[in-house]
Structures are given as structure tokens and as C-alpha cells.
Design a protein that fits this description.
Layout lengths: L6 E8 L1 E5 L4 E3 L4 E2 L3 E5 L6 E9 L6 E4 L2 E3 L4 H12 L4 E3 L4 E3 L8 E8 L9 H16 L6 H8 L14 E5 L10 E6 L8 E7 L8 H11 L1 H23 L3 H20 L10 H16 L5 E4 L6 E5 L2 H14 L8 H4 E3 L2 H5 L5 H5 L20 E7 L6 E2 L17
Parallel strand pairs: 7-11, 17-18
Antiparallel strand pairs: 1-6, 1-19, 2-5, 3-4, 5-12, 6-11, 7-8, 9-10, 12-13, 14-16, 14-18, 15-16
Helix pairs in contact: 1-2, 2-3, 5-6
Bound molecules: ligand DP6.
The site of ligand DP6 has 15 residues, from α4.
Keywords: ATP-binding, Lipid biosynthesis, Lipid metabolism, Lyase, Nucleotide-binding, Peroxisome, Steroid biosynthesis, Steroid metabolism, Sterol biosynthesis, Sterol metabolism
InterPro entries: GHMP_kinase_C_sf, Mev_decarb, Mev_diP_decarb, MVD-like_N, Mvd1_C, Ribosomal_Su5_D2-typ_SF, Ribsml_uS5_D2-typ_fold_subgr
Main location: other
Length: 418
């Protein structure tokens, strides 16, 4: 270890949405859950975190920038992740640049971390999941840790529970584990993103002025006060997880949708069963559920599944592209943009679904007829402005390293944000 070199690594990690929810910890510090959970990883092209980590003998402390702003690393969750990764660091040698870092050097060396979400943090879309997964993955590569993705997931878990599921693409299960030290509480991949690539995911980012209870505080209150949670964790989730794995393996959309909706609804019921009660969904969320329920009921078999996390945003999973186009028509009928919004900023992500839905511009939205399953004599109201925007996406891949220097967030000559 000599000279003032800087070594950087940049990684990109997806976010994930649970179809069987994690809610409740049995150990707050280690972040050990009271039940298994299952998620689908979202395409990083539309929702991901990019993180650059750098090490240099010239750095005098660990520092981090999130979306360009310096933040403190003193919190227990960051400290736990940094400590666990450092403990697994191995020798690194870059002969070309004359850099050699011995295993023990990592305890003395400091790191700089810059992280950026390609979606608005304010939208309340599980940014901590992608963020901690990316932090742990990037540091593991920088420090040449030999751990596999499952072992890394057990470290990311200590940053934020749901982060452990972002170490894989496709469908992922977080096994709650039995050990007191948490060593067996980790994520495994059920199937990769190609297994069920018909699925299309539409996220409705719902306008909300309400300050939401954080997941951490909310689940702590639930564990302390809800009897329904105990029933859920012991009796309901274990059976549901088995059925969900089977539905995923067999591409059984009807069963998948039924389980996903039921589990989201039970999670919100558990929130209501908490003292004081927690309300994450709002009237718009309820209207979206009702739109999907009516449509699913009018068809022979479910077309769309819905799931809501700790906020009012809806994540809608359509069985295929054709259904997704029909879903988007319905969503745009019930939730047209406010008059000053243009379509290109109202439907984000994979915009080709808009084309499939036959919608070119705002005039096509205004001209949409009420969905055929609505048999009322008076057309149902259109709730203008209740949704901020939609994101069209699909199941996606797990973390990757980005070798293109231009994508790095830290300047390779200063180690500071570009
Ligand atoms: C409703 O992972 O954000 O999204 O472990 O305290 O950081 P902490 O909580 P977090 O909780 C996520 C809860 C959820 C359900 C889920 O993702 O499974």
C-alpha cells in the first residue's frame, strides 16, 4: 500500500416488490423477520440504484453522498453493513496500477460512497431496498469479498430487511431462518427473470400529502400490539409461501394473483390491527383496488394482481402485455392526468404499452370510454390528478457491475462526487 491512488467500483442494483410481505421483526438490531417473504425484482432500466464506492489511502474518513447530498454514515444500519463487509475483505492486487491492498489493510482504509436512484426518492418506492443492496454488493466487489449473493444478502438485510431480496433478479424468497445470530436469514432466488417474462408491472405513484409512518416504526408498533400479526406469521404466511412458490413455478397466474392480493390486504389489515392503527392506503388506493377487483370478477380468471407497501402507491402485475394495455386504458380512464401534465411525463418506463393501448396523446385519454364491466347508467367519475404518474416495467435482473467509467458517480482522480 503506497502512493495516493484511488480504486473505484460501480454497481447497479434493482428494487423489489413483495408479493408475500415482510412485516414484523423478531430481532430489531439484526433485522430478523417473523415470517418468510417473497418478492419480484423490478427491471433496473426503470427503477434502480447506482452506487460507486472508492478506496484510497488519502481518504481520512468514511463518507457517503445520496443523490448528490452528503449524508451521515453514523447510523447503526450503515455501521453494521460496513463492519460486516470489512470483516470479509480479501487481498486486492492491481498490477497494472501498482496497487496492492493486503487483507488487514481494509480495517484502516476509508471508503467514499456515492449513490443515486433513477426514480424520485420522494415517490416512496422502496429506495432503501435497492440502496442497501447496492452498497453491500459494490463494497463486496471493491474489497474482493468471496461471499456469494445469498451470503451478501444476509449483510444487506442488516441495512434494511427488504434489501436482502434485491441481491437477485426474478422471484426471490427471504428465508426467515432460525438462528439467533441471523446467519440463516437470507435471500435465495426461486426463478430468474426469464422464467415468467410475460408479466408486466404498472406502478401507480399516488399523490399524497400525508406523512407516512416509516416501515421500521410501523412494524415495531405492530409487533408490540397486534394479535393478528401473530396469527398471520404462524398460521397464514407459511402455507401461503408454499402455494406462492408453486404458482410461480407453474406460471399459474390465477393462483399468483389471488395470493398476492390476499397477502397485501392482510398486511394492511395487520396495520389497522396495530395500536394506534396505521393507514398506508388512501382513497385513491382503494379506488384502484376496486377497479381491478371489478375487472377480475367480470373475466373468467384474474387479469391483474395488486399489491401495496407502506404507502398509497399501487403495484399492479398484469398477466401479459395484452392485459397490461387493457389495464392502462382502465387506469387512464379512472385517473387521467391533471390538465397541465403531458402524456410523456405521465406514463414513464416502458412507454410501448401506451402504444399497445392505442393512446398517443391526451386527446385519446379524454376520449376513453368507461370500461365495459362498469354497467352503471351514469359513467363513473374520472379522478383527475389523483395519480402523479405511472411507471410501466417488468420483472428484472439482479445486481451488476458497471465497467463504463462514464457511469461512475465519483471522480476517479479526487474520489469526490462528479
Ligand atoms: C411493506 O425493509 O423498509 O415493504 O427492515 O425496517 O428497513 P426495515 O423495513 P423495510 O420494510 C419493508 C416492508 C414492506 C414489505 C416488504 O417489502 O416485504
Amino acid at each position: 500500500m503506497a502512493g495516493d491512488w484511488i480504486r473505484t467500483v460501480t454497481a447497479q442494483t434493482p428494487t423489489n416488490i413483495a408479493v408475500i410481505k415482510y412485516w414484523g421483526k423478531r430481532d430489531e438490531n439484526l433485522i430478523l423477520p417473523v415470517n418468510d417473504s417473497i418478492s419480484v425484482t423490478l427491471d433496473p432500466a426503470h427503477l434502480c440504484t447506482t452506487t460507486t464506492v472508492a478506496v484510497s489511502p488519502g481518504f481520512d474518513q468514511d463518507r457517503m453522498w445520496l443523490n448528490g447530498k452528503e449524508i451521515s454514515l453514523s447510523g447503526g444500519r450503515y455501521q453494521n453493513c460496513l463492519r460486516e463487509i470489512r470483516a470479509r475483505a480479501a487481498e486486492v492486487e492491481d498490477k497494472e496500477r501498482g496497487i496492492k491492498i493486503a487483507k488487514d489493510d481494509w480495517q484502516k482504509l476509508h471508503v467514499h460512497i456515492a449513490s443515486y436512484n433513477n426514480f424520485p426518492t420522494a415517490a416512496g418506492l422502496a429506495s432503501s431496498a435497492a440502496g442497501f443492496a447496492c452498497l453491500v454488493f459494490a463494497l463486496a466487489k471493491l474489497m474482493n469479498a468471496k461471499e456469494d449473493h445469498s451470503q451478501l444478502s444476509a449483510i444487506a438485510r442488516q441495512g434494511s430487511g427488504s434489501a436482502c431480496r434485491s441481491l437477485y433478479g426474478g422471484f426471490v424468497k427471504w428465508i426467515m431462518g432460525k438462528e439467533e445470530n441471523g446467519s440463516d436469514s437470507l435471500a435465495v432466488q426461486l426463478v430468474d427473470e426469464k422464467h415468467w417474462d410475460d408479466l408486466v408491472i404498472i406502478i401507480a405513484v399516488v399523490s399524497s400529502r400525508q406523512k407516512e409512518t416509516s416501515s421500521t416504526t410501523g412494524m415495531r408498533d405492530t409487533v408490540e400490539t397486534s394479535l393478528l400479526l401473530q396469527h398471520r406469521a404462524k398460521e397464514v404466511v407459511p402455507k401461503r409461501v408454499v402455494k406462492m412458490e408453486d404458482a410461480i413455478q407453474k406460471h399459474d397466474f390465477a393462483s399468483f394473483a389471488q395470493l398476492t392480493c390476499a397477502d397485501s390486504n392482510q398486511f394492511h389489515a395487520v396495520c389497522l390491527d396495530t395500536c394506534p392503527p396505521i393507514f398506508y392506503m388512501n382513497d385513491t388506493s382503494h379506488r384502484i383496488i376496486s377497479c381491478v377487483e371489478k375487472w377480475n370478477r367480470s373475466e373468467e380468471t384474474p387479469q391483474v394482481a395488486y399489491t401495496f407497501d407502506a404507502g398509497p402507491n399501487a403495484v399492479l402485475i398484469a398477466r401479459n402485455r395484452k392485459t397490461a394495455a387493457l389495464l392502462l386504458q382502465r387506469l387512464l380512464y379512472f385517473f387521467p392526468p391533471s390538465s397541465d401534465t403531458d402524456m410523456s411525463s405521465y406514463v414513464l418506463g416502458d412507454k410501448s404499452i401506451l402504444k399497445d393501448a392505442g393512446i398517443q396523446g391526451i386527446n385519446d385519454v379524454e376520449a376513453l370510454p368507461p370500461p365495459p364491466e362498469i354497467k352503471d347508467n351514469v359513467p363513473p367519475p374520472r379522478n383527475r390528478g389523483e395519480v402523479s404518474y405511472f411507471i410501466c416495467t417488468r420483472p428484472g435482473r439482479g445486481p451488476v457491475l458497471l465497467s463504463d467509467e462514464s457511469l461512475a458517480l465519483l471522480d476517479p482522480s479526487t474520489g469526490l462526487p462528479k
